Amino acid sequence: MSRQRSYSRSLLEELQKPPALPQPNAHLYKDMLIFEERLKQNVRRLKRKKRKYRFQLGGLLLVILYFTWMILFESERKPWTFLYKYGAIICIIIFYWTYRSRKYTQTTKYVPQCNRSLLAFNMRLRLDRDHPDGKLRFSERIPAVIDDGFQAFKALYFQRKRSMSLAAQKQPLPRPAST
């Protein structure tokens, strides 16, 4: 009986130990940077989709207002009145269906879903005024050394990338050989 207790105690102690963190190196930071950039790309893509859906919804709303105007104020006994009424009903159905569609709600739910997934890795994607596309943030459980190293690596990476693009712009284009 005492053997079983000692075994369960050591197992419990083993489970309570914090997990071993990988040693921070350039490869780890590069992978994290690629991951962050992919998340930012998804946020930008979904924002474009959301803007497009809002534009479509605005157009449908204008069509509905036009049909409503035609039904209420231009409602003489013309043959077009029948078409206006059914057109308005169809537009209302399409308006509601589009607004509640999965694609539109997907754009608003991406960041919370992403943060629920990143919670297991002690990270979250933060959108704010300074970073409208998002920024990968670490939990307090992650040592500050890793966070500081990642921020330094990211700054160095973008500085290198910027200097390479400036050098490519300054380099003259090769002239074709004249015959």
Automatic annotation (TrEMBL):
GO molecular function, one term: protein phosphatase regulator activity
Sequence similarity: Belongs to the CNEP1R1 family.
GO BP term, example: lipid metabolic process
Topology term for the membrane: Multi-pass membrane protein
UniProt keyword terms in alphabetical order: Cytoplasm, Lipid metabolism, Membrane, Nucleus, Transmembrane, Transmembrane helix
Main localization category: cytoplasm
Domain of life of the organism encoding this protein: Eukaryota
Subcellular location: Cytoplasm; Nucleus membrane
Protein name, entry field: Transmembrane protein 188
Stretches that traverse the bilayer: 53-73, 79-99
InterPro entries: NEP1-R1 (IPR019168), Spo7 (IPR005605)
Cellular component aspect of the GO annotation: cytoplasm; Nem1-Spo7 phosphatase complex; nuclear membrane
